[in-house]
Design goal:
The structure is a single chain. The protein is an alpha/beta fold. Strands 1, 2, 3, 4, 5 and 6 form a 6-stranded mixed β-sheet that branches. Strand 1 and strand 2 form a beta hairpin. Helix 1 packs across helix 2. The longest helix is centred in the last third of the chain and has 17 residues.
């Protein structure tokens, strides 16, 4: 499972001209499920995102997590985080999970965040989404449950 985590001043997601999720300060998470991901991958990444210390305090620029910073989390399903662009010019998406598994693990990720004290805002699974954000920093972190990077 992979995530692109961005620290934002604000972020929102629109589906069919209707805003379905949004946050002020916090984390925008693009989450992609791989074909061999399991529930443990989802739980691992949810904990990593929840406790990722990328907000400033009075002493260090990267010292507080999203809850300490009183921020929100917007989670967007993004199978393209599983793209492999090492060969050629068209990314291969063969590493992405089938929709049923992807949706199950996406939902588990969001539920795990709730058990960790953050009720995430979300997009809509398998829908075309327009995502807007104002990146803070910019701070962009890549996470992989298989620890490939």
């Amino acid at each position: 499972m992979r995530a692109v985590v961005q620290r934002v001043h604000e972020a929102a997601v629109v589906v069919n001209d209707c805003t379905v999720g949004g946050i002020g300060k916090g984390l925008l998470v693009y989450l992609g499920v791989g074909s061999d991901d399991r529930p443990a991958d989802s739980d691992y990444l949810a904990e990593k995102v929840r406790y990722l210390r990328i907000f400033p305090d009075d002493h260090k620029p990267l010292n507080r997590d999203v809850v300490e910073a009183e921020g929100g989390i917007l989670v967007i399903s993004a199978f393209t985080t599983q793209a492999d662009a090492r060969k050629g010019r068209r990314p291969a998406l063969t590493g992405a999970a089938e929709p049923q598994l992807a949706e199950e693990l996406y939902e588990q990720f969001c539920k795990k965040l709730e058990t960790l004290g953050v009720k995430p805002q979300t997009g809509q699974f398998r829908e075309h989404m327009d995502v807007s954000s104002v990146n803070d920093g910019p701070i962009c972190i890549l996470l992989d449950s298989g620890r490939q990077f």
